[in-house]
Design brief:
Distance between the termini: 36 Å
Number of helices: 11
Shape: globular
Strand content: 15-25%
Radius of gyration: 20 Å
Structural class: alpha/beta
Bound molecules: ligand PBG
Order of helices and strands: HEEEHEHEHEHEHHEHEHHEH
Largest sheet: 10 strands, mixed
Amino acid sequence: MEYGKFPSYRPRRMRDGELARKMIRETRLSADDFIYPLFVKPGEGRRDEIPSMPGVFQVSLDMLMPEVQELLDCGVHYVLLFGLPAAKDEVGSTAWDEHGVVQEACRIIRAQAPQMYVITDVCMCEYTSHGHCGKLDESGRVMNDETLELLANEAVSHARAGAQMVAPSDMMDGRVGYIRRALDQAGFSDVPIMSYSTKYASGFYGPFRDAADSAPAFGDRRAYQMDPANGTEGVREACYDIAEGADLVMVKPALPYLDVLYRVKQETHFPTVAYNVSGEYAMVKAAAQNGWIDERRVVLELLTSIKRAGADMIITYHAKDAARWLAEL
Ligand code: PBG
């Protein structure tokens, strides 16, 4: 169609006033779209703000419920739990400790907040002394197949503690299938897997590694996370994980990879989650604190863009603020 031939086509007519714009709005953001990452740690009375992530806190177990209640009050019903364990070792054995910090957090939330849906991050990097996402060989390389069993132990222990969904973020090959079988054998065939299928080796995870105390002690994660230059491989990674039994797939980070997010959603037709990561959050916060951008406007625009690109759900540290702002609109 040649629009020029229709002199009466005046898109501005539907931009005149909020009610007109709302009528033809294609993407609607809601608090139901958000998953909030929560960092839990041992100790008592701790609610420590993460310096590079203003407004985000590491909380001890006794401080968990006020945090959960605040989320529910804003209309956020999904949390993704990360643990800062009391102790770390070479193989990250506190990851599957029945009384580990994430396991206890699951029990607390499930018992006290039935309206909250609990997802757990499954990875070794918070639990290993070297900060890598799996078991190392003598040369310091992460061993793929030897790590699978550790991840499966962790996932099953989370499910036992009441996690309603597990989310492996380690990027070992074959881990979705391995974890699926382990969950099924342990009687958790109803627990879905949200796979961090398409996870890039990104510079945007820096603030998270402070928050979760999970920076690798040497080297980086490029031998297991994806090369930022690859888009088609990102789709392929999602397809492999679906074939292995993933219920939801993910693209992470979100903003530099909206093209990949669009393709994953279009090509898999699977529920697709975007992780708006710590560095993306930190950039917005820093600019807002300097008065350089309008935080509310920018955050809602970014989250709308992520949804428009294809995200069914967005994991974001902005969840509380965004949910409050949406309620005011
Ligand atoms: C664990 C994990 C990471 C993030 C989520 N799970 C860090 C990493 O891979 O180094 C990053 C989240 C964020 O930056 O907000 N593997």
